[in-house]
Batch of 2 targets.
Target 1
Amino acid sequence: MKRSEHSWPDEYTYPSVIRSCLNEYKLKEGQIFHGSAIRSGVSKDLYVGSSLIDFYGKCKEILTARKVFDEMTERNVVSWTAMVHGYLNVGDLDNAKRVFVQMPERNLTSWNAMVGGLVKGGDLINARKVFDDMPERDVVSFTVMIDGYAKVGDIASARALFDKAPKRDAFLWSVLISGYAQNGLPNEALKIFQGMELMNVKPDEYIMVSLMSACSQVGNLDLAKWVDCYLSQSSIDIGQTHVVAALIDMNAKCGNMDRANKLFEEMPKRDLFSYCSMIQGLSIHGYAEQAVGLFNKMLNEGLIPDNAAFTVILTACSHGRLVEEGKHYFETMKSKYSMVPSPEHYACMVDLLSRSGQLKEAYELLKSMPVESHASAWGALLGACKFYGEVELGEIVANRLFELEPENSSPYVLLSSIYAAADQWLDVSHVKNKMKERGLRKLPGCSWI
């Protein structure tokens, strides 16, 4: 176009080529077009300037974006909104708020940008204030706020806002279903899906992935089969990586290992998540040795395990009492992969050693932890002390738990049982008196049958 004798780039040309650089995040090329716009004398044009602000803001060149903004002789709601977006993109909430307040006029996009930026920055209180001040709201406004509440665990506020939404699309339903699933409320997620079905809203793959996550938590095989069947009859492409990975995870955790394995073997390329789903499914259903074999196969294929993968395999070793394998993986993560074991990894090892009767070694491992250990790890060791009748170590572990969880009655009950098994009835009485002094009660047992 520039070489043509009959045409020349103008203020309508540059916004398009600048946007093409933005899509690929080609900063250098965008800067070249900016220079060309300056030489052509159109850089301060309203549309060119707005495109440049948007480009530099999304490329996180916020100082350049602000320079372009300040040099513009004319600004409209698009250029102001682009500047707000730019500040939000680099996490500068203060300047984003300042520009938003200074805006001579705002449209729905401006309001949604501000709400979304505050939610992303974790400032839900101010995000809700801006949301409540909006002269009008669309489904995007509600989705952003509901997603924000769900991600911080305030599912009650998310649901209350969902019920107020005048219009609900598939994405809004997906956000709520995902919120319930991620916050450990799978049954509620399933109820929301059923409500969506009654409203004749067609689920997309994201809704189905969230639904499969909820099914995985419930562990209901019949429900998992229904979801699997529903998916096969829908128009959703189950060949998509995230969909098939969720299918494998759901079937594995619900006990349909044949179906999970079939899906796993048919995958053209297996990732870490798919491997971990299969390993965890095998572990849950008592196939610890197969889980170890699959983990080794994953390593042989060149996949690098992360923290979660090591938690999965150490848990499998614990369930199967595979002590040597567990010790090997625990050392491997430190020596080969230069990873610092987390409290979860230590807890898995303590549980493994405790189940196998190696209580002293489990205790020494707990003491050697570079970070504060979880109460769950000490609890596993105390349970093992009861099982193996270790009175002296049981006293030490119980006293540590009294410090970590002073309001929890379980350590007192376990210690009392350890004393009772050893016929130390005076000590049993002492523990019970201690519980009364602290106002603690033994939780009544219940059956899930």
Note: The chain has a mean pLDDT of 89.
Target 2
Amino acid sequence: MSTAAKRKPTKNPSKSSKPKSPAEKSTASLTEAPSSFGDANFFPFGRYTGVVGVHTSLLAFTALFLPRSTFLLELTRPERDETKLTSRDRPQHPFLEALTLNPALTSATICAGVILLQIWWSGFVRGWWFEYSLKGTEDDMRLERRKLEKDKLMQLARALLFTVAGSVPVHILLVLLGAPLTSHVPQTFFLALTLSTLMFFTPAFVFGLPSLSSKTESLLIRLTWVRLFSEFSIRTPVERAMAYPAFGAALGCWIGAIPIALDWDRPWQAWPLTSLFGAVVGYILSSMAALTISAIKSLADEHLRTTKAD
């Protein structure tokens, strides 16, 4: 028998080297083993810690100091007659006066700052997720990165539109839970848009938009959304970095509404200040919790691998 007859048929190189989409490659993360937490590319502890620290610090600065801008205060400062103040105008700390003077402006300013910060943060998370998802040869990964960078602006626009659309059901939910129906509409809208940005924008920018399409990639995206936000099944640090803050923002907003019902007649109880700041605080604390838990798991897995190697 000739050597040509003995030679086994090989696959078409053009088909075997065809890069898969990140959504298809992310199927590996659906069955991710705990040992992968120690992967340096999968969990960049130093870079992740630094970005979380900067992100949460800028969120706190946005909530506390951005509404205190001199230009905004002078532009919207209402004229008050000190002789007509009632018992509801209680003395408050000068630091709080700029935040409570115009709740609608405060809500709008914080919402704008949160949108800008989430765009930056989502870019980091998206790059982190693709670093883990992209596998194969260097050429395949280079081609896929080029394609992803090309589609980045389109994905960003879709995520922003999805976030704005998501603020509509959030607004309705806030009204059903007790927000004013006919009054304070701008305040409620900016709170809903802030919540939608904190909860939905990053997953939409990283994973893609959920849809009812039967295509494989759309099905995987939809299942990922259901697994994270319906089943609360989190299996990777990247998913934890998105899911924990989203739930923390919703919980913080709900807890922040409690002081509004108290009969204290304080200026800072105006709708929706306590809920808005509660959402930001909940997001920050949950981001720190996600970092802490992922770091502990990473160190534990590294210790187990070291023990087994010895």
Note: The chain has 14 helices and no strands.
